[in-house]
Amino acid sequence: MPRRLRPTPLEHVVDGHALRARLSAAALDSLGDEIAQRARAIEILKQALFRGRMIAKERLENGAGGLETSRLLSGVTDEVITALYDFTTVHVFRARNPTEGERLCLLAVGGYGRRTLAPYSDIDLLFLRPYKTTPHAESVIEFMLYALWDLGFKVGHASRTVDECVKLSREDFTIRTTILEARRLTGDERLAVDLKKRFQDEVMKGTGAQFVAAKLKERDDRQARAGASRYMVEPNVKEGKGGLRDLHTLMWIAEYLHPVDRPEDVFKLAVFDRREAKAFIRAFDFLHAVRAHLHFTTGRPEERLTFDLQPEIARRMGYGDRGDAPAVERFMRRYFLIAKEVGALTRAFSAKLEADNFKHEPKGISRFLPGGGRPKRKALDVEGFYEDGGRLNIDGPEVFEADPVNLIRLFKIADERDLDLHPDAFTAVTRSLGLITSRVRRDEDACQAFLHLLARGKRSYRTLTLMNDAGVLGRFIPEFGRIVAQMQFNMYHSYTVDEHTLRAVGVIGDIAAGRLADDHPLAVSIMPLIEDREALFLAMLLHDTGKGGVGGQEKAGARSARSACERLGVDRLKVELVAWLVENHLVMSDFAQKRDVSDPGTVAAFARIVENPERLRLLLVITVADIRAVGPGVWNGWKGQLLRELYNATEAVFRGGRGSDAAASVQRHQEAVAEAAREALIAGDPAAKGWASAMEDAYFSAFKSEELKDHAALARRAAIQGGAAAEGQVTPGSNAAEIVIAAKDRRGLFADLALAISSLGGNVVGARVFTSRQGQALDVFYVQDVTGAPMGCENPRALRRMADALEAAGRGETASFEPRRGAEQSRTAAFSIAPSVVIDNESSDDATVVEASGRDRPGLLHALAQTLAQNGLSIQSAHIDGYGERAVDAFYVQTAENGKLTETRKITTLKADLLSALEANEAGAPNTRPGLKRARASVAR
Predict the structure, then answer these.
(1) Which of 415, 585, 627, 908 is the most exposed place for a label (fewest CB within 10 A)?
(2) Distances (CA, A) of 781 to 84, 637, 736, 757, 759
(3) H/E element holding 428?
């Protein structure tokens, strides 16, 4: 990190006296020529503004703080605008003997009024008049605004009288906040004084409760628009939760309830103790620095810390790689820790606010409304704790000092009684974290209270989130503390690691309560059969604690899990079960999504890893929760179907008994399912008998009875209309359209079908391949459009065109491909992605498994499938998966002799050809913004 620079005096950057002297000289040199006067003045002001901004930028890059930078930019802008005002009123529209009505005052409002200006922020100005506008005032305002626009400012402005400001402030809280922050720049001082006095007397007095309620509602609405979690991995620095606007809201409220002369004086108010004031300033300084770097880097008012900007901002702020932690992830962790601190400040401030303004039965700080009397205090049967207006409070910090275990009990009681924490209690917790020592972490009562809350709590997700926000969870479970605010630099994860983990725990809680029966029927149905809920919740809480650890995520996670469980006093068998679950928490999703679950060998291999039904049940629930908690849209019905197939097949193995042949058990299970499905299909559609007899057993466990019937009809249609038929549909709630094609099988068919989909802007997110004994292929594709929505969801004709294109491809008609860039492609430009190819001859008895991984893009599936065809291989099944910017596609392939690819020379050639296709894909990746470099994408899941 660069060493902090001392603040520089403004006059060393912009000399206001010299600037005005140059403007006066220019005006006199061009006397009588108004156009030349104006042009000279604009040029002089541009030079001053440019010099000021460049000095601010250089100082920022050399270690100046964010607050200093924003104040320096504000000061430079002050000098330029006030010099322009003087030039306008002295040399252009001079009123030698101004009347009372020609008085004018210029005020800065908004962020500019607070003296915190970002490089490309709007500047908000208020032209204050005593009465209705005069021709002189109109001329001055018009000249100044055009000049400011020519200087490159984006100006928000208003021209009002004092009466109008007071009247509009009463009616509109946005205008009220604007006037609250107003700062006189130049002009008639009496007008500014009059406005301030009348605003305090006629608007602010007696309306504190109303203003607070309005500002907090405004904050909640804003956060709902920007993203409700402060741990979104592409945060909005200004508007997002835990960002600058949250701090502004606290400042507005404090300043409204306790008026001060200058915004910075807010920090000296009694509502902030010394520690909180320092935290407030620290957060402001960091966030303003990030925002200034964003503006300077992009050359525009960019407020979102997007993936492509994160590495560059990390570099500019002095972060470097440290061990296995990349600079970008270290920087983003610091960002999220600051956002977390902003949340704690909000609660602490609310506690102070409540001391003066009482509430009735609130359930969260966003419902702040001062009441007319003190909330009711209700004693509890636990010494030191009481219910205060519907929330849990404590007698004082001495409750924790006397017995630090109370720091854990507090949250257990809150969960049992379904109470939020009182801000006083929350603040006392954050100030008592040092009491959580190694002795407390091993205390039996503390451990039992925590385990009860985790595994049997009423609302574990909410309470654990409170514990995390307060800093208790990471302090009590140090293994979890290591992943607090940790971010993974990839597009797959939408949240920080700790937020993802707590959401996954919450998903399990919802599954256990039966709230997700529609989305996860199997998980909900087996949850009551799980014998050890404690092991389940512990494994979920600790499943990602190995990220960034030595030996890889899984091994490091297992070590962390053992350490945490042993300290919590968990018995040895449970410790080993939790460690096993953590080490293998990705195994089920890998088998389901990257391998052929209809292959008995695949199921047998998975069954050998899992070993017993209890582990299978635990692993299914953990896998579902883990995927669902990654982010919006990651879970889908297609993944659910694959997991159910793998679970049912593996369960059949275990039903066969310990001594039975696993593959044979899977085979018998598939035969039984297929026999029942064939009989049902033929009974409902006698014409489907030939189709039902020709299809392999594994096909029947993959689809519902109605789908089987539709497929048989499609196959008959294909025979009638030239050898191919396709149909598409968008199922409500699905994230991809399903397109089914029946066609005569041939080498290269899958590649041609993939090309047809890509040529119309489709992106394949899943595929299933089946071939009948008569040589007819039935391929099922799950397709999204370039925006990530189901293909044809807005335009059904697009889905029909794609089905027609697939029919043409199925008949052997060639399609042309023109790459189309989707919204996601430009986001992937931020990442450097190393391609890889794995050739596996062990996972299947009769096919070679080829797994290719690289940058995802339209047309990639076709390129890979075509490469396989050119190497003389036919695709038996395809398994398409993606992790944000990275595609991971697995193919089961056979040679022309229907065997595995075993020749070393051919394996080497295939691997080289696939890598060439993937590397060409990486070389042709979309460009980042000018001047930005790619950073290595995290491969952690």
Answers:
(1) 908
(2) 65, 13, 9, 9, 15
(3) helix 423-430
Cα–Cα distance for residue pair 307/728, rounded to 1 Å: 35
Provide the 3-class DSSP secondary structure of residue 779. Answer: strand
pLDDT at 924: 55
User: Token digits for 317?
Assistant: 């702020």
Q: Which residues, including other chains, have CB under 8 Å from residue 205's CB and lie 6 or more apart?
A: none
The predicted model gives 590-618 an average pLDDT of 90
Q: Which residue has the tokens 């725990």?
A: 505
SS (H, E, C) 279-296: HHHHHHHHHHHHHHHHHH
Report d(CA 129, CA 137) in Å as an integer.
Answer: 8
Inter-residue contact 466 to 421 (CB < 8 Å) = yes
Q: What's the rounded Cα separation, in Å, for the pair 417 and 423? A: 17
d(CA 213, CA 217): 6
CA distance 512 to 458: 11
CB neighbours of 284 closer than 8 A, spacing ≥ 6?
66, 67, 116, 244, 247
- pTM, to two decimals: 0.84
Neighbours of 437 (CB within 10 A): 11
Coil, strand or helix: which one is 330? helix
Could you tell me which of 310, 338, 318 has the C-alpha nearest to residue 233? 310
Reply yes or no on whether the pLDDT at 498 is more than 50: yes
Q: Report how far residue 642's alpha carbon sits from residue 636's, in angstroms, rounded to the nearest whole number.
A: 10
What 3-state class would DSSP assign to 161? strand
pLDDT (mean) for 746-767: 88
Average of per-residue pLDDT across 392-400? 93
The SS3 assignment for 740 reads strand
The pLDDT of 569-573, averaged and rounded, is: 95
The pLDDT confidence band at residue 363, using thresholds 50, 70 and 90, is very low
- What is the predicted pLDDT for the residue at 368? 45
**Per-residue pLDDT tens digits for 276-319:** 888 889 999 999 999 999 999 999 999 999 888 999 999 999 99
Question: 648: which 2 tokens?
Answer: 């049912």
DSSP 411: H
If 0-12 CB within 10 Å is exposed, 13-18 middle and 19+ buried, where does residue 750 land?
buried
Taking Cα atoms as reference points, which of 98, 50, 57 lies closest to residue 76? Answer: 50
pLDDT of 928: 60
Pull the structure tokens for residue 689: 């008998």
pLDDT at 926 (0 to 100): 57
Structure tokens at 475: 């302090």
DSSP, res 433: G
The answer to whether residue 782 scores a pLDDT higher than 50 is yes
**Residue pair 445/416 in contact by the 8 Å Cβ criterion:** no
C-alpha dist (Å) from residue 789 to 425, 507, 733, 764, 785: 45, 24, 11, 12, 6
Lookup: tokens for 363: 């359930």
pLDDT, position 846: 86
State the Cα–Cα distance between residues 693 and 687, nearest whole angstrom: 11
In the predicted model, what is the mean pLDDT of the chain?
A: 87
Is the pLDDT score of 934 beyond 80?
no
Q: With 80 as the cut, is the pLDDT of residue 336 above it?
A: yes
- Residue 307 CB partners (closer than 8 Å, separation 6+): 234, 489, 491, 827, 830, 831
In the sheet that holds 737-744, the strands lie side by side as 724-729, 737-744, 776-784, 763-771
How many Cβ atoms from other residues are within 10 Å of residue 239's Cβ?
A: 17
Residue 400 in contact with residue 424, Cβ under 8 Å? no
Check residue 371 and give its pLDDT: 46
Cα 199 off chain centre by: 41
Say how far apart CA 789 and CA 803 lie, in whole Å: 17
| 276 phi-psi bin (left φ>0, alpha ψ -120 to 50, beta other) | alpha
Torsion over CA: 63, 65, 70, 73 (sign) = negative
